[in-house]
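Protein Record: Sequence and Backbone Structure Tokens
======================================================
Tokens: labelled as protein backbone structure tokens, with as many entries as the chain has residues.
Question of interest: how does this chain fold, as expressed in backbone structure tokens?

___
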Amino acid sequence: MTLRSTSALKVYICNVASQPGETLGFTVSKHLEVIEQHVGEELIDYVIVNSNLSYPLPEAAVDAGITRVLFDKEQAMQRPIHYVLADVVSKDTPSHHDPDKLAKVIMRRIWR
């Protein structure tokens, strides 16, 4: 597998919110568990996790069953991965990432 053979850093940007029918109720470690089921363990070097839970999810999102993806630190820290907790959520669409915030985190915290 090409992804496993490269020496490049592998960064997983964890979802800000769940996807009904796909990731409902998933925590950060559950996302990683599912990824590992497909590609194997110890592939990912960094995981970016949203730390800003202050913006409420839109009413339509809540009605659809969408929830925040929470960082279950104790479970997640059992993996040999670097976690970067940062405010990467969109103020305007709190169920999505803010691309500018996300780019800044990647450039400042990972590719320094």
Observations:
- The CA atoms of residues 45 and 81 lie 5 Å apart.
